[in-house]
């Protein structure tokens, strides 16, 4: 289907940010591993999070949705795969990465698979890091990608993993570690990207009763060309249990970036509720980015206010800790005056798509002048009307729709926003930007 602008009214108003996708994934997984019954409030029910709910049910958790909350009766860490068939995770890379480690806690074999796109995601680094822990996870097609067969057994011990590919690999090991036989000590080798996502994981683990010891040390050899010391992060998790709790999912800064960017590009005023000042989400940096580009930002305890005159200026920005903002910032850059340099996002090449490549190719279709680099891009403001393709990437569909504020644009395969923000069209309409699927 094609996503395009239906009508633009007076832009501005008040809207609630959707629940965090990252926290929703983690909440249902931890509640499923916990002893007792949890109530999860303000959960996000998107295609991705529904995949996590499905796999947790398949491994023994009882999950029931009521009008006000999601009730999860946990397994106490004793998982059992009730289906002889592979568990279909659709397009949810987060679910695949987090559950590959968790599935090893099952008392029988588990096969995790998904759609064609999911089966292109590299998983070899995680599977290799799990081997020293006594976890047997293997690619059925012998290509380090899904379908992944995970056999029962999780001894624990020491292992290490590079931190510059996917923070979800790190979170996967951390989440499963307390329920291993002997606990786990995990060393994250430099360079550690997207660290805020790991902090989010540790934060919600604490809410469900698990303690983690964090530390680091400096290595002085084989670090870089200048032979400087490099930091090795250490996470030590002893054998312990998760315990059920009532948990409210906070608003999502990634999804809210489209609501905020709408005001920044068009001009106007808006209040976005359910965005917490003390959130551990790395994508909270969107507020600093928009401020540097010329918008006025007011941070409340549980809301953000934004005002803009619609005139944005270029900036230099390192998104190494917030790669999910890449496409939003790229579109802001394309609508700004001057040349914006985006760096630090080489790991965005292994998302739903190679997000650096697809973003550059689609902006070029609109006449945008840019230079692609291995870890980012330089974008000179200025685009024309045109037709682009989402490549099945929810973030590209949502971000590129913002160009419709000032130019005619159509986004093919535009319905994919359901992956993370099912109420995207309704939320944008509350601020006066009416989109439609045709």
Could you explain how this protein is built, in words?
The protein is an alpha/beta fold. It has two domains: 2-10 and 251-261 and 314-437, UDP-n-acetylglucosamine1-carboxyvinyl-transferase, Chain, CATH 3.65.10; 21-143 and 152-241, UDP-n-acetylglucosamine1-carboxyvinyl-transferase, Chain (Alpha-beta prism). 28% of the residues lie in helices and 26% in strands. The radius of gyration is 21 Å and the shape is globular. The relative contact order is 0.15. The model has no long low-confidence stretch (mean pLDDT 96).
Topology summary:
Layout: E1 2-8, E2 12-16, H1 21-33, E3 37-41, H2 47-58, E4 62-65, E5 69-73, E6 87-88, H3 93-102, E7 110-113, H4 124-130, E8 137-139, E9 148-150, E10 157-162, H5 167-176, E11 184-189, H6 195-207, E12 213-219, E13 230-237, E14 246-248, H7 253-266, E15 268-273, H8 286-293, E16 296-299, E17 303-308, E18 316-318, H9 326-334, E19 339-343, H10 355-365, E20 369-373, E21 376-380, E22 386-389, H11 394-401, E23 409-412, H12 424-430, E24 433-437
Parallel strand pairs: 2-15, 3-14, 6-7, 10-11, 18-19, 22-23
Antiparallel strand pairs: 1-23, 1-24, 3-5, 4-5, 7-9, 8-9, 11-13, 12-13, 15-17, 16-17, 19-21, 20-21
């Amino acid at each position: 289907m094609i996503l395009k602008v239906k009508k633009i009214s007076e832009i501005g108003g008040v809207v609630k940010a959707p629940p965090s996708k990252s926290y929703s994934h983690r909440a249902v997984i931890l509640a499923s591993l916990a002893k007792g019954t949890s109530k999860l409030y303000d959960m996000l029910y998107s295609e991705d999070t529904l995949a996590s709910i499905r796999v947790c049910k398949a491994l023994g958790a009882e999950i029931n949705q009521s009008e006000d909350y999601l009730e999860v009766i946990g397994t106490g860490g004793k998982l059992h795969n009730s289906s002889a068939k592979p568990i279909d995770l659709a397009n949810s890379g987060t679910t695949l990465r987090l559950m590959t480690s968790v599935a090893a806690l099952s008392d029988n074999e588990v096969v995790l698979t998904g759609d064609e796109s999911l089966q292109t995601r590299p998983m070899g680094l995680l599977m290799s890091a799990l081997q020293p822990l006594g976890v047997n996870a293997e690619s059925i097609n012998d290509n380090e990608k899904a379908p992944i067969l995970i056999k029962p057994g999780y001894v624990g011990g020491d292992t290490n993993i590079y931190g510059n590919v996917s923070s979800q690999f790190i979170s996967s090991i951390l989440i499963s570690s307390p329920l291993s036989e002997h606990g786990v000590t995990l060393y994250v080798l430099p360079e550690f990207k997207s660290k805020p996502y790991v902090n989010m994981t540790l934060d919600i683990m604490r809410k469900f009763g698990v303690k983690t010891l964090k530390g680091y040390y400096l290595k002085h050899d084989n670090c870089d060309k200048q032979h400087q010391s490099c930091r090795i992060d250490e996470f030590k998790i002893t054998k312990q249990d998760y315990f059920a709790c009532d948990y409210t999912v906070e608003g999502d800064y990634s999804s809210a970036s489209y609501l905020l960017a709408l005001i920044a590009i068009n001009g106007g005023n808006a209040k976005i509720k359910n965005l917490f000042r003390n959130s551990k989400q790395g994508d909270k940096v969107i507020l600093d980015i928009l401020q540097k580009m010329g918008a006025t930002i007011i941070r409340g305890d549980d809301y953000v206010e934004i005002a803009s005159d619609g005139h944005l200026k270029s900036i230099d920005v390192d998104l190494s800790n917030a790669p999910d903002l890449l496409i939003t910032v790229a579109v802001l850059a394309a609508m700004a005056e001057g040349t914006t340099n985006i760096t630090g996002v080489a790991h965005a090449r292994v998302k739903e798509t190679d997000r650096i490549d697809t973003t550059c190719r689609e902006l070029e279709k609109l006449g945008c002048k840019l230079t692609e680099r291995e870890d980012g891009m330089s974008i000179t403001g200025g685009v024309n009307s045109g037709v682009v393709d989402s490549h099945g990437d929810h973030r590209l569909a949502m971000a590129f729709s913002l160009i419709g504020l000032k130019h005619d644009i159509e986004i093919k395969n535009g319905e994919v926003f359901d992956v993370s923000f099912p109420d995207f069209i309704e939320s944008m309409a509350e601020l006066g930007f009416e989109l439609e699927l045709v």
